[in-house]
Design brief:
Shape: globular
Organism: Roseibium denhamense
CATH superfamily of the largest domain: Medium-chain alcohol dehydrogenases, catalytic domain
Number of strands: 17
CATH class of the largest domain: Alpha Beta
Structural class: alpha/beta
Order of helices and strands: HEEEHEEEEEEHHEHEHEEHEHEHEHE
Radius of gyration: 22 Å
CATH architecture of the largest domain: Alpha-Beta Complex
Largest sheet: 7 strands, mixed
Protein name: NADPH:quinone reductase
CATH topology of the largest domain: Quinone Oxidoreductase, Chain A, domain 1
Pfam family, one: ADH_N
Strand content: 15-25%
Number of helices: 10
Keywords: NADP, Oxidoreductase
């Protein structure tokens, strides 16, 4: 649809520009954007029954500075599960597996999100999102309509979340487990790639988490131990560490060792093995739990320990003498500089990293996808196909 009421032959250049620009905006508005959509919503903290398929969800409208996304694909992450079962609540002391039957739900009341604040239900989760921009809000260039984008999962808070240090797509506001979503234009990063939508959707959360850990710890051409190496973040960390010239030791189960070597690991260590002492410059830990003391002992003097997960348990034992006598540096890694995600998109576009995708499910089968994810049988990510195009 084109604007009317102007004579282009008589219009000056500025007016002509505005007319063309407005036509792009209306083109976005007049695309086949329905009033309702399908998606999977989280109705509360608990087991998989808290995930409900809905076909009557209102399609969101982009506010000023936002874009409307037609979601093409998403993926499953630990943070989806952690939020669903209420594991982030400080009252929870156990590992993630212990809460899968919904056992943490009661303790999550009032603070089951990563930020410690209560979530608003129903919530559309999905931190991973590959999408097409189909409409723009006020203040966003209409020419962005039609762009293929990846959504930055860890975002700087805008006005409505000014009390938080960080906002997560699919947690503090609705994410990619529906046919449409909105996000701020600055967090929708254009990507040019021949990879499929599902392959691209496997990158945002896991790979940006791994890259954030690597950048925070300053990993270079050094020796690094990666725990939980067969999962999404761990397998991403293998590739990203190798990209920096590191010698990678991946901690895993024997049955997955070959797959991790194929991803680039130089050596593997059984997750039940004793970690050799004073060997590693850096440890990237996604597991925590009872094995934590051995990981710290495995660092050389002046080594660095970075953590962004605790699936084996969040409460650990630390001998402070090891920390200070060996001059160990600790890095908790959640917040990310904006450049972490744009760096990642650059690596994708240059073919420096590749997706590690175990299998793909349709969005309607998200419960089954999470069950498969939690089986820990897979190496890499579980992809979710959203668009039926």
């Amino acid at each position: 649809m084109w604007c009317s009421g102007f004579d282009l032959l008589d219009a000056g250049p500025a007016l002509l520009y505005r007319k063309v620009e407005w036509s792009f905006y209306l083109w976005g508005v007049m695309q086949d954007i329905p009033g309702v959509m399908s998606g999977m919503v989280l109705t509360g903290h608990g087991d998989l029954s808290c995930l409900e398929w809905r076909e009557d969800l209102p399609v969101p409208t982009p506010a000023p500075g936002q874009v409307l996304l037609k979601v093409k694909a998403a993926a499953v992450n630990n943070t989806d599960v952690n939020t669903r079962i209420g594991w982030y609540a400080k009252a929870v002391r156990g590992d993630t597996a212990s809460g899968l039957s919904g056992g943490y739900a009661a303790r999550a009341a009032g603070g089951g999100s990563w930020s410690g604040s209560a979530l608003t239900f129903p919530r559309i989760q999905g931190a991973d999102c590959c999408a097409e921009i189909v409409q723009v809000g006020e203040g966003v260039a209409p020419s962005r309509v039609g762009e293929r984008v990846l959504v930055r999962p860890m975002q700087a808070p805008k006005a409505e979340h000014g009390d938080l240090p960080l906002v997560t797509f699919g947690s503090e506001y609705d994410g990619g487990f529906a046919q449409f979503a909105v996000t701020y234009a600055e967090d929708a990063i254009t990507v040019t790639s021949e990879l499929s939508d599902v392959e691209l959707a496997s990158f945002p959360c896991a790979y940006s988490t791994a890259e954030g850990m690597i950048q925070r710890s300053g990993l270079g051409a050094e020796s690094v131990l990666i725990t939980g190496a067969s999962g999404g973040v761990g397998s991403a960390a293998i590739q990203l560490a190798k990209r920096r010239g590191a010698h990678v030791t991946a901690m895993t189960t024997p049955g997955k060792a070959g797959d991790l070597r194929a991803l680039g690991a130089d050596a593997t260590l059984n997750r039940d093995d004793v970690v050799p002492k004073r060997v590693f410059d850096v440890v990237l830990d996604l597991v925590g739990g009872p094995g934590f003391p051995g990981l710290v002992e495995g660092l050389v003097s002046g080594g660095r320990y970075a953590v962004s997960g605790a699936i084996a348990g969040p409460v650990v034992e630390l001998d402070l003498r090891t920390l200070y006598l060996q001059d160990i540096s600790f890095f908790g890694c959640t917040r990310q500089k904006a450049s972490v995600f744009t760096d990642l998109v650059g690596y994708i576009e240059r073919g420096e990293i590749r997706p590690s995708l175990a299998r793909t499910y349709d969005l309607k089968d998200l419960r089954a996808a999470q069950e498969d994810f939690l089986s820990k049988r897979n190496v890499g990510k579980i992809g979710i196909k959203v668009s039926l195009d």
